[in-house]
Design a protein that fits this description.
Structural class: alpha/beta
Order of helices and strands: EHEHEHEHEEHHH
Helix content: 40-55%
Radius of gyration: 22 Å
Number of helices: 7
Bound molecules: flavin mononucleotide
Largest sheet: 6 strands, parallel
Strand content: 5-15%
Length: 245
C-alpha cells in the first residue's frame, strides 16, 4: 500500500475471480487501457489518469496508459501511422477502459475525442471497443460539473461499451493534487478508489461474456439475409452455366 498512502489499509482488497464464486470466470489479470485528454505538461487529467493506474495495478489489473502526444488529427495521416496503430492495438488488447477528460467549454476536449475518433467501431470482424467495460472521469477548473462524464457515457454507448454506474468528477482540480502530482486525500479521492474497484468487478464479470452480451438480433438477421442472397445468386449462376453447356 506504500504507493497508495491515502488508501486506508485493510479497507481495499483486490476483487478476484475467486471472490465471485463462479468457476467460469477467467482468472488472468484484468487488462485496462487508460486514456486522458490533455497535452499540457502539468495536466490534471493526466495526473488523475496516473492515480487511476496506481489503484488499478494495486487491485490486480494489468494497465496501459496511452500518451496522446504525436497522435495526428483524424484522417490527416493513413491509419498505418505508428501512433494510430499503438492506440488501436491497445484498445483491442483491453478488456476494460478508463476515460479521463478535462472539461473545456462545457464538454470534453478535442485531444480526447480525437483518440476515440481513431478507433473503428468495426473493421472486418475486429471491434476494438465493443463489449469492453468503461469507467468515465473528468477534471474541472471550476465547480463540479457532470457535462463531460455525461458526454463520455454517450460516446461509450456509441462505441458499444459497458459503462459502469459509478463515475468521478473532480472540481477545482488544481486544488486536489500536491507538488508531487499525487491526489490529496479527500472524498474525491475516495470516489476514484470506488470507481476503480467497481471497474475491476464489472470487468471480471463481463469479459469472456462480451460476445454473448453484444450479439444482436438485427445483425444476425442481416447475416441470414446476406447468406440467402448469396445462395440465390449461386443458384442462378449454376442454372446459367447448365443452360449454356
Ligand atoms: C479555454 C478553456 C476553457 C475551459 N472550460 C472549462 C469549463 O467549461 N468547465 C470547467 O470546469 N473548466 C474549464 N476549463 C478549465 C480546465 O478544465 C482545467 O484547466 C483543467 O485542469 C484542464 O485539464 P488539464 O489540466 O488536464 O490540461 C477551461 C480551460 C480553458 C483554458
Amino acid at each position: 500500500m506504500s504507493n497508495l498512502p491515502n488508501v486506508t489499509p485493510g479497507a481495499l482488497t483486490a476483487p478476484t475471480a475467486a471472490s465471485l464464486n463462479d468457476s467460469s470466470v477467467a482468472s488472468h489479470r484484468p487488462r485496462i487501457l487508460i486514456l486522458y485528454g490533455s497535452l499540457r505538461p502539468q495536466s490534471f487529467s493526466r495526473k488523475l489518469a496516473l492515480e487511476a493506474q496506481r489503484l488499478l495495478e494495486h487491485l490486480g489489473a494489468e494497465t496501459r496508459l496511452f500518451d496522446p502526444h504525436e497522435l495526428p488529427m483524424l484522417d490527416s495521416v493513413p491509419s498505418s501511422h505508428p501512433k494510430v496503430q499503438e492506440l488501436r492495438e491497445a484498445s483491442l488488447w483491453s478488456e476494460g477502459q478508463v476515460w479521463v477528460s478535462p472539461e473545456r467549454h462545457g464538454t470534453l476536449t478535442a485531444v480526447f475525442k480525437n483518440q476515440i475518433d481513431w478507433l473503428p467501431l468495426e473493421e472486418g470482424s475486429v471491434r476494438p471497443t465493443q463489449g469492453r467495460t468503461l469507467a468515465v472521469m473528468q477534471v474541472c477548473g471550476g465547480s463540479q460539473s457532470f457535462n463531460v462524464v455525461n458526454s463520455l457515457r454517450v460516446l461509450g454507448r456509441w462505441m458499444r461499451m459497458v459503462a459502469i454506474p459509478n463515475q468521478s468528477s473532480v472540481p477545482k482540480a488544481w486544488q486536489e493534487f500536491d507538488e508531487n502530482g499525487r491526489m490529496k486525500p479527500s472524498p474525491y479521492y475516495d470516489r476514484v478508489v470506488d470507481v476503480m474497484e467497481e471497474l475491476i468487478k464489472f470487468t471480471l464479470l463481463v469479459r469472456g461474456r462480451s460476445d454473448y452480451l453484444v450479439d444482436r438480433y438485427s445483425e444476425r438477421k442481416g447475416a441470414v439475409e446476406a447468406a440467402a442472397l448469396a445462395a440465390a445468386a449461386g443458384a442462378v449462376e449454376a442454372l446459367n452455366e447448365e443452360e449454356s453447356a
